[in-house]
């Protein structure tokens, strides 16, 4: 029998802190009222937010050097769904799950979809994997996949992507995210232009296989595993390729896939302006593709990204609809706790950005009052919107304090008993 946290347990845990939460909420309501803002409208807005979970995020990640698995890790995609459902149960903001193939391949996708739906989850974009060799695959991706010199290798990689689309379609997904590690480790190894030509030609075949209501997301990454020249290294290349491919191709911004100090919010603004901002992989980073928990290093950057997203909605309304997903690697924390905290950090940035006094900001910009424009953003960023997020969770049946509730439930201890380790199982397969 699979242990899931009983609903009553969450309600009992909430009861301990409800009076305190109400007091904090009322105090914040007063502060916001003085700024002409209605806390109830913001709480409703917070309740409408969601960010998808990466199926691979519920297992311990690992680095190039080692992986230190935790207790009770999921051993297959069905167990991953249980952990994702727990994250969603307590936070109420993560109803989507993004699968990665072949890591999450199952013989029975229909059963997977039914079980996920029964747990209140649906499937977000699916991810293909041609950055590793799958067990038993005839040809190696050692020298590239969609850009490989060998046409047979490219055909194999194209077929895998189309397979992902078909599987995703059965699961109810509406998008395919393509990240590939293709590139060169040495100057001269590739004809730089030739590699991109091959990429485009492969992607055209995948694009042609997309169902009419699907999007394909191009995920760029500066480097790793190609350390000299990654084929899709930056948003410019991603934008050019998405434009070449057509309206169903969009760009996906993984926050960790840029050089340190890159102005990511400006990339977001540019892609939004030209209609190619498809979605995000949220995480945080200090040096490179660190896959640290969202908001753990640079929450101000996350806020500034959401400030651009707020601007996109103000300009384009419902037509502006990028997808949100976490993409993190958890090495020293319980993945469920990290995912819950991170989802809330992303939701926090969303509500902080909603607090920006846009009239004042426009006025200060018009007057070239740089100091007051910056102060206007800072006022929103500095506002502790925690009570809004907690109240939205409680009203939706989630936990006032998800990590405390999760720990009190001893969920992980239950899983440690239910899921004795099996040889070869891992969270992602990524090292
Ligand atoms: C690559 O670094 C990446 O960000 C892509 O999104 C992959 O699908 C994911 O990580 C796999 O861990
Ligand atoms: Mn990513
Ligand atoms: Mn990455």
Concise structural overview:
The chain has 431 residues and is an alpha/beta fold. Helix content is 48%, strand content 9%.
Describe this structure in words.
Keywords: Isomerase, Manganese, Metal-binding. InterPro entries: L-rhamnose_isomerase, L_rhamnose_iso, Xyl_isomerase-like_sf, Xyl_isomerase-like_TIM-brl. One of its GO terms (molecular function) is isomerase activity. With 431 residues, this protein is of the alpha/beta class. The protein has a single domain (51-359), classed as TIM Barrel (Alpha-Beta Barrel). It is 48% helix and 9% strand. The strands form three sheets. A six-stranded parallel beta sheet has the order 4-5-7-9-10-11. Helix 1 packs across helix 13. The two termini are 32 Å apart. Bound molecules: alpha-D-psicofuranose and manganese (II) ion (MN) (2 copies). Residues 179, 219, 254, 281, 327 line the site of one manganese (II) ion.
Number of domains: 1
Give the fraction of residues assigned to helices: 40-55%
Termini separation comes to: 32 Å
- According to DSSP, the number of beta strands is 11
Lateral arrangement of strands in the main beta sheet:
4-5-7-9-10-11
Class by alpha and beta content: alpha/beta
Proportion of strand residues = 5-15%
Shape: globular
> What's the average pLDDT?
97
Supply the CATH architecture: Alpha-Beta Barrel
| Main sheet properties | 6 strands, parallel
Which ligands occur here? alpha-D-psicofuranose, manganese (II) ion
Count of helical stretches: 15
């Amino acid at each position: 029998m699979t242990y899931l946290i009983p609903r009553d347990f969450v309600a009992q845990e909430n009861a301990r802190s409800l009076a305190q939460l109400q007091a904090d909420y009322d105090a914040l309501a007063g502060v916001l009222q003085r700024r002409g803002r209605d806390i109830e409208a913001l709480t409703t807005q917070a309740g409408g937010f969601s960010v998808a979970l990466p199926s691979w995020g519920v297992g311990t990640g690992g680095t190039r050097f080692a992986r230190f698995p935790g207790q009770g890790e999921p051993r297959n995609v069905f167990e991953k769904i249980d952990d994702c459902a727990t994250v969603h149960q307590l936070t109420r903001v993560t109803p989507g799950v993004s699968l990665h193939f072949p890591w999450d391949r199952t013989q029975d996708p229909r059963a997977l979809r039914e079980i996920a739906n029964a747990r209140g989850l649906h499937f977000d974009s699916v991810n293909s994997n041609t950055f590793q060799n799958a067990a038993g695959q005839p040809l190696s991706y050692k020298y590239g996949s969609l850009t490989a010199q060998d046409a047979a290798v490219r055909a194999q990689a194209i077929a895998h992507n189309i397979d992902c689309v078909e599987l995703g379609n059965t699961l109810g997904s509406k998008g395919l995210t393509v990240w590939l590690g293709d590139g060169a480790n040495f100057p001269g190894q590739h004809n730089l232009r030739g590699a991109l030509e091959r990429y485009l030609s492969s992607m055209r075949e995948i694009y042609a296989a997309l169902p009419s209501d699907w999007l394909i997301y191009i995920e760029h990454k500066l480097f790793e595993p190609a350390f000299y020249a990654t084929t899709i290294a930056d948003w410019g290349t991603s934008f050019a390729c998405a434009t070449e491919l057509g309206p169903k191709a969009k760009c996906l911004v993984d926050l960790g896939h840029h050089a340190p100090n890159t102005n990511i919010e400006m990339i977001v603004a540019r892609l939004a302006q030209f209609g190619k901002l498809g979605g995000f992989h949220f995480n945080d980073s200090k040096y490179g593709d660190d896959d640290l928990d969202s908001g753990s290093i640079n929450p101000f950057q996350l806020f500034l990204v959401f400030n651009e997203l707020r601007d996109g909605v103000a300009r384009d309304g419902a037509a502006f609809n990028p997808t949100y997903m976490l993409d993190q690697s958890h090495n020293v924390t319980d993945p469920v706790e990290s995912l819950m905290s991170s989802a809330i950090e992303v939701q926090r940035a969303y509500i902080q950005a909603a607090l920006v006094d846009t009239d004042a900001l426009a006025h200060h910009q018009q007057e070239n009052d740089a100091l007051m424009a910056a102060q206007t953003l800072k006022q929103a960023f500095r506002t502790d919107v925690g009570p809004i997020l907690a109240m939205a969770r409680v009203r939706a049946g989630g936990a006032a304090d998800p990590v405390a509730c999760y720990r009190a439930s001893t969920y992980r201890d239950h899983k440690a008993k239910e899921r004795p380790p099996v040889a070869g199982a891992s969270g992602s397969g990524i090292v």
